[in-house]
Design a protein that fits this description.
ATP binds at residue 537. It comes from Mycena indigotica. This is Protein kinase domain-containing protein. The strands form six sheets. This protein has a seven-stranded mixed beta barrel with strand order 11-13-18-19-17-16-15. Strands 1, 4, 7, 8, 9 and 10 form a six-stranded mixed beta sheet that branches. It has a three-stranded antiparallel beta sheet with strand order 5-6-14, with no helix packed on it. α3 (67-82) crosses α12, α6 packs across α12 (375-401) and α8 packs across α12. It is an alpha+beta fold and 677 residues long. The termini are far apart.
């Protein structure tokens, strides 16, 4: 005991530690003169959630009344094991964490971003420090060995449902675990090895969902309890009746940890194999299907004013069902086991069970009045449980992927879906192929069926999009007047539609999310056409949609003036279920930014011919009366044949001032000078 605490010191430390563990956050309330935050709404991510692979979707919600106690008891047991082994010079935790506890919240904290920021500055350092001490009892301080943080995309929605909040470990330049202070010396080699495996396995641990400090948010969390009364969860998918999917992505279904610090409640009955999603589908082969039925109110797209007011997805109010589906999908995206729902003064914790596709939810509790356990103790257990879970799953995954000696037993392929190259996957079961140009035929069709087949996505049913604008690359056979709106039919023959299969995400920006895609069409005589090198831009909110519509008009203007070296546009399409618009174009290759070997350097090698071509394209754009206003390496592209393209005209202006039109020689040097290109 010479290097450890005396009996009196242990008792003093234990009493002080119990005081810290019983701390609760202060009660938050909105100032009388503060404007109320926006009500919780559905973010654009809800569109993607409808396309998650059916073996990854949520099928049931179950109550988990003992979860809070299980987590806090685990934290208590871990602390009791290490408290007598702490160094003699250990600082009392109440002293170490005083600055975080004294960081009082602003009375105007209302939004999810502000609530997450408060948690990050006050509660996360305390819980993380205590969890670190349990893992590294010989460390001389109470500092964190890991971080808690929140990220939000550039086009984030104000309701907090489309961001990432999680635990993560820092990495050095080589991708290894990065530690500070004496953590490196006091960490046991086995724990370091385990955490290195976690970093290689997943970068994000856990999922936090913050909602604004409103009564509506509290009602949403309270309403989650009613979902456990249902036999199954009605997972929302696209409402297009469509045959069973043909190609299946190569995907290994993640497994649960072999053991956890909680005991899941037993279920009374197995979940039916026929899920709500599968009920939308007609289980027939692609070659035999002749009619596709679309659930849609016919009158909606007949009025453009209705579209302007109703299509943006973020305006849809959240329900307990949609909240749970969004959170589950976010956990699937990051492969998280635990989800925390927080709205300021109230909270729920949930466990995602992968094998049964079940979400186990705790009771709703007031975080300002937690007793036995206190809020800090609960979240220390929460942090430890998630880290231990990640370690266990990383180990199990590594064991599954390590080479083994040959065995007479057949490998278990139940959780691995068939793998085919993209081209073969799309051509599977297709007997006849046509030499006709696919997108030329697609330009004559107004109904587009959008599938997703990448990462966690494999659409149980496609989204139905109606053409909003003509194809700019191929002429339609029928002359359409300005303002023409295609009629919406209740059902479509397969040769009246064309399909677009999204196969990757290329990037995201202020205008929308950009995807790589492939098109598939069936002709009236049974032949099949495939176009593999496409790009689909998706926009969901009002401002990005306005910019995308403007971008289409710019491309139309350039097409009318015969400008080449810009994307070939096949049309703008609108989601029949509301929420998204899609711009379909050809893939122009790789950006100059992405082609740079060293991204820290600004210079990129281009051939003299390519440089000349970029100058020529820009000059033609200017002569057509258009200024790009966003010329940079990310918007200059070169395809596989070495052809140059200028893309992303969402910021461009038509018919600029006369003094700018004098810039007619197309010189990029001048374009980058006084007058933006």
């Amino acid at each position: 005991m010479s290097n450890n605490l005396s009996e009196n010191a242990v008792l003093k430390l234990q009493n002080d530690l119990n005081t810290v563990l019983s701390w609760n956050p202060p009660f938050l309330e909105r100032a009388a003169d503060a404007e109320p935050p926006l009500p919780p709404g559905t973010p654009p991510q809800a569109f993607y959630n409808k396309h998650i692979y059916e073996k990854l979707i949520l099928r049931r919600v179950m109550p988990f009344g003992s979860l809070v106690n299980d987590l806090s008891n685990m934290a208590q047991a871990q602390l009791e094991c290490i408290i007598a082994r702490l160094p003699l010079d250990s600082v009392l935790p109440s002293e170490a964490f005083t600055e975080f506890r004294e960081d009082r919240p602003d009375m105007e904290i209302l939004t999810p971003e502000e609530l997450a920021e408060l948690y990050s500055k006050s509660l996360a350092p305390i819980c993380g420090g205590l969890a670190t001490k349990i893992m590294l009892p010989q460390t001389s301080n109470w500092d964190n060995a890991f971080e808690w943080a929140r990220w939000a995309p550039a086009d984030k929605t104000p309701n907090g449902m489309d961001d990432n909040s999680c635990i993560f470990f820092l990495q050095d330049e080589s991708g290894k675990l990065r530690l500070f202070g004496d953590h490196s010396e006091t960490m046991k080699p086995k724990l370091r090895e385990d955490l290195e495996q976690v970093i290689a396995f997943t970068l994000k641990i856990g999922t936090w969902v913050f909602l604004s400090l409103t009564e509506e948010s509290q009602e949403l969390l309270a309403g989650m309890g009613g979902l456990s009364l249902r036999e199954t969860f009605e997972y929302s998918a696209c409402k297009t009746i469509y045959p069973a999917s043909i190609g299946i992505l190569s995907r290994t279904i993640p497994h649960d940890a072999p053991s956890n610090p909680w005991t899941l409640p037993t279920t009374n009955a197995p979940i039916s194999v026929s899920s709500p999603v599968c009920s939308f589908l007609m289980m027939t082969s692609y070659s035999s299907i002749r009619t596709l039925t679309v659930f849609f109110e016919r009158q909606r797209l007949l009025h453009p004013e209705w579209l302007e007011k109703n299509i943006p997805h973020y305006s849809t109010s959240l329900t307990p069902d949609s909240l749970v589906q969004l959170a589950w999908a976010k956990a699937v995206e990051t492969d998280s086991t635990m989800i925390v729902f927080n709205c300021g003064n109230h909270e729920r914790i949930a466990v995602r069970h992968r094998e049964t596709q079940t979400l186990y939810i705790s009771e709703l509790y007031d975080i300002t009045k937690c007793e036995n356990p206190g809020y800090i103790k609960l979240h220390v257990g929460l942090y430890l449980a998630q880290i231990y879970d990640a370690i266990a799953r990383a180990k199990a995954t590594r064991q599954q992927t390590e080479p083994r000696r040959s065995s007479r037993k057949r490998p278990n392929t139940e959780d691995i879906t068939p793998s085919l190259p993209p081209t073969k996957r799309l051509k599977r079961n297709l007997e006849k192929l046509s030499s006709q140009r696919p997108m030329e035929l697609a330009s004559q069709r107004d109904m587009m069926l959008l599938h997703m087949q990448y990462d966690i996505y494999h659409s149980p049913a496609p989204a139905s999009f109606i053409r909003a604008t003509p194809c700019l690359t191929h002429k339609t056979m029928t002359v359409r007047k300005a303002g023409y709106v295609p009629p919406i039919k209740r059902s479509y023959e397969i040769h009246e539609c064309f399909e677009v299969i999204i196969t990757s995400q290329i990037g995201r920006g202020a205008t929308g999310i950009v995807h790589g895609a492939t098109a598939r069409l069936a002709t009236k005589d049974g032949k099949t056409l495939i176009e593999e090198n496409l790009v689909v831009k998706l926009a969901f909110r009002k401002q990005p949609q306005r910019r995308m519509r403007h971008e289409y008009e710019v491309y139309k203007h350039l097409m009318e003036h015969g400008v080449t070296g810009v994307p070939r546009v096949y049309g703008l399409f609108e989601d029949l279920e509301g929420g998204a618009i899609a711009l379909v174009m050809n893939n122009c290759g790789q950006t100059l930014y992405d082609s740079r070997p060293d991204k820290t350097k600004t210079r990129t090698f281009v051939t003299p011919a390519q440089r000349k071509r970029f100058t020529e394209i820009l000059g033609n754009v200017h002569r057509a009366g258009v200024r790009h206003y966003d010329i940079r390496a990310e918007n200059l592209m070169i395809d596989s044949a070495g052809e140059a393209f200028i893309v992303d005209f969402d910021r461009a202006r038509l018919n600029p001032e006369r003094r700018e039109e004098k810039l007619g020689d197309g010189n990029p040097a001048k374009a980058h000078g006084r007058h933006p290109p």
